[in-house]
């Protein structure tokens, strides 16, 4: 395949872009192929004869071409010479045309058998091989440079790549020996700080344990953790270590009793209780040792705290409701003659005091809650009787009116009816929403059809001169650099409004193959069109590709253009057998990326590519 090149107007490019027939499959991949624009710049062993040198680039001939006057040149060198001069031989100035050139296969075979040193000889490779086998050697040469497959910033010798990937690369995956989590090597220290299985010491008792157990240890077990007194909400401001909490409760029983008395008075005031009889006051704690009594007081203090914070359910003054909320427990030393109280007493079961050896506070709290329940039960039972003297020592407790209950019942009925109406409305709204979704889907389908018709109309009115705007160029270039989207395809267009070829442009913003990372690559692909059966195949003519300079000053605009001359023998110009021809034709090295970045080729983060198709009549 001969190269197709054109002059770059107003742009002084150090390298010449060569045409390239590419295979563009569904995965956007391309075959690996390097196209050189000059001769072989290798260290030959021995040095070849001067007749194998190109008189233009002064290197050993690559793809030698012979002129009618018998001189040999590199294929790309002589084509560039012809197009930039007056089509004369650079040696004897004899006139000839590009079509007069022919391949010198004899010289090519001889050159392919020349021995050369590996290009990595300066790095230590001592291999000497033939030119035709050099490319295969370079793929395996241990002294060749290769980027890290983990995409870190290192470029290493291939021989050192495995060691780097397994043990040195900061982007390699490593596993935590404690919890088994997988993370990048560079994040190892960050993971150590949060690893749930890491062994740490308690800040208070210095006991060693896993970090995930530390919070529970400090909250429930640690003997050196500083705590507030259980009566803190009632006014006790003492602080002590958990191991000294039991001693504090025993030593300050009298002070806690006074604090609790004030709290109990507050509860009685809220419940409307006038006073307690001496019998009921002493019966609940009869037979308890001081430690147990302290526990009961502590539990009641906790209940008072919850009451003050609004955490306990609001108590109704209705006697029946009180009996349901606070079940009555038997109180040592007291008796009740009411049959309902006896029945409730049997269902509640006897009171029990449990003291856990691991946490005295929990046992004391449980006992206190039981005693508090007893008092509430006494209140519930007493409020159910109308006699002024009462039972269990309570003077009186007002009962709620039955009118409140009837009012609540009527309100519930109204709310049920309202909820039923809302449910019906919800069902109707869901049906309407479903219908709206169906209509939206139908409208979306119609919009897609209209967009397709508009796109087809636009592709026909361009008359072979198509402008492709690539918006969000910066983001698309980053995606191409990261391998997310290496190839972009334009919308298709026709070369004529009445009857023309259907074509699209492919752009590799970060280049392809040997031009990857250094040049913008542009190709054209023929597509199946409406008039393919009426057109002449293969396509013959010219296609001019241009990158538009968007400088605000017209006189400063210098567009970069290349002309593709169709080659009927290539698959890229044959009648497409698929919706888009897999073979494309164009330039791998159309424009250096360094010339695009920060230049007037990009404006408003948009790159404009122009294609002008000139079919042969």
Automatic annotation (TrEMBL):
TRAF-type zinc finger span: 136-179, 190-242
Compartments (UniProt record): Cytoplasm, Cell cortex; Lipid droplet; Nucleus
Ranges that cross the membrane: none
Region (Disordered) location: 328-359, 376-395
Coiled coil (residue ranges): 426-460
Reactions accelerated catalytically: S-ubiquitinyl-[E2 ubiquitin-conjugating enzyme]-L-cysteine + [acceptor protein]-L-lysine = [E2 ubiquitin-conjugating enzyme]-L-cysteine + N(6)-ubiquitinyl-[acceptor protein]-L-lysine
Enzyme Commission numbers on file: 2.3.2.27
Keyword DNA-binding attached: no
Protein name: RING-type E3 ubiquitin transferase
Species in which this protein is naturally found: Pomacea canaliculata (Golden apple snail)
Pathway entry: Protein modification; protein ubiquitination
Domain of life per record: Eukaryota
Record bears the keyword Cell inner membrane: no
Molecular function as annotated in GO: tumor necrosis factor receptor binding; ubiquitin protein ligase activity; zinc ion binding
Domain MATH span(s) in chain numbering: 463-613
CDD domains: MATH_TRAF_C, mRING-HC-C3HC3D_TRAF6
Residue ranges with Polar residues bias: 376-389
Pfam families with a match to the protein in the record: TRAF-mep_MATH, zf-C3HC4_2, zf-TRAF
